[in-house]
Design brief:
There is one protein chain. By secondary structure, this protein is an alpha/beta fold. The protein is 40% helix and 19% strand. It is built from 5 helices and 6 strands; from the N terminus they run E-H-E-E-H-H-E-H-E-E-H. Strands 1-3-2-4-5-6 form a 6-stranded mixed β-sheet. A hairpin with a 2-residue loop joins strand 2 and strand 3. The protein is globular. The termini are far apart.
Length: 164
């Protein structure tokens, strides 16, 4: 597990969230460089990075190879546990329905995401899966952090695709 803040702790929870989301943005940039939809994810617990992910749907020819899913798999491998209790997931796009299911099964406690996803978003846009009654696990969630930066990256990616 990598130390998240090896030199200094952020001064506020908002600054911490912004610093971690910036790491997720770097993962999204990596995905774009590999001709993947630019989505990135980081999973942390306390001041440690447990897992990272950048979309690899095209490279792996796998519809489940979303940034969040890859970060969850890596975090579980790094902890040796199938549950990520007290972990937080930061992602550059609202998690889809598939990823929301994995987040709940992994028992991730909090999700912070940048841009909403009107077509597939499972947190607030298309569905509100974390808020369904009867669930045995609740996921705290917050959207909108660095939303414009993420949305711009996605727009640029798809505009370039359409030009080809």
């Amino acid at each position: 597990m990598t130390l998240l803040f090896p030199l200094h702790q952020p001064e506020s929870p908002q600054q911490r969230d912004a610093m971690i989301m910036e790491l997720a943005m770097r993962q999204a940039e990596s995905a774009a460089r590999n001709d993947e939809v630019p989505v990135g994810a980081i999973i942390v617990r306390g001041n440690r990075i447990l897992g990272k992910g950048a979309n690899q749907v095209e490279a792996l020819a796998d519809a489940t190879a979303h940034a969040e899913m890859l970060a969850i798999t890596q975090a579980m491998a790094s902890t040796g546990d199938k549950r990520l209790v007290d972990a937080e997931l930061y992602c550059t796009l609202e998690p889809c329905i598939q990823c929301c299911g994995a987040i709940m099964h992994a028992r991730i406690s909090r999700v912070v995401y940048a841009a909403p996803d009107p077509k597939f978003g499972g947190v607030e846009s298309l569905a509100q899966l974390f808020d369904l009654p009867g669930l045995n696990h609740r996921v705290e969630h917050q959207g909108g952090l660095m939303a414009e930066q993420s949305a711009a990256m996605l727009r640029e990616f798809f505009q370039a695709k359409r030009k080809k």
